[in-house]
Design brief:
Elements: H1 2-19, E1 23-40, E2 44-50, E3 53-59, E4 68-74, E5 78-79, H2 83-90, E6 102-112, E7 117-126, E8 129-145, E9 148-163, E10 177-191
Antiparallel strand pairs: 1-2, 1-3, 1-10, 2-5, 3-4, 4-6, 6-7, 7-8, 8-9, 9-10
């Protein structure tokens, strides 16, 4: 009887551990939006987006500090609503997309700030330079798809600002841009 009780207790502990482990998600590239804006000579906030976004999320709802995120942007997918400008932004003057095809953000620490909010610190790698950037993140919701109860989606919104020249985009100021760039990120991710 004692063996059975001990085995039951161990099984219960293991099941509890599994219940509180981080869930894994893949960012849905068809429901991921990464927009950016930067000052344009005081006239306006120049804006654009990256069309190719992917990544993974490990989300521990019981202890968000144990969560993690990795986002990948394809530099050549930049879109500012002007083909000539986009071509210039992909050039060595700005993103140098041929030599550095990906822009990545990989979390290094998460600090809970509210019921559904956190500050996510991570390494942003741009033009081969990695520096810490802080994103203010909101967990929006999680639920099954209305037409497929077996597919669970979760969604996040995030924003953060960094200096373009500090990452090697030194010609920004030559064109009256920046120097700060703000990222706005909205992603939906599918539970594995």
């Amino acid at each position: 009887m004692k063996r059975l009780s001990f085995a039951t207790a161990i099984a219960g502990l293991l099941m509890t551990g599994v219940a509180f482990a981080a869930d894994s998600y893949d960012i849905d590239p068809t429901h991921a939006w990464v927009r950016f804006e930067t000052n344009h000579a005081g006239w306006s906030q120049a804006q654009g987006a990256f069309k190719a976004v992917s990544g993974t999320i490990a989300f521990d709802k019981e202890d968000v500090t144990k969560s993690s995120v990795e986002i990948v942007l394809e530099a050549a997918s930049i879109d500012t609503n002007d083909e000539k400008r986009d071509t210039h932004l992909k050039s060595p003057d700005f993103l140098n997309a041929e030599e550095f095809p990906q822009i990545t953000f990989k979390s290094t620490a998460i600090e809970k700030t509210g019921d559904k909010t956190a500050k996510v610190t991570g390494d942003l790698t741009l033009l081969g330079t990695a520096k810490p950037v802080v994103l203010d993140v909101t967990w929006n919701a999680e639920s099954p798809l209305p037409w497929d109860a077996n597919t669970i989606k979760t969604g996040f919104s995030a924003t953060g600002t960094f200096s373009g020249p500090e990452f090697g985009i030194t010609k920004m100021t030559d064109f009256g841009l920046g120097p700060d760039i703000t990222l706005d990120i909205d992603v939906e991710a599918v539970k594995k």
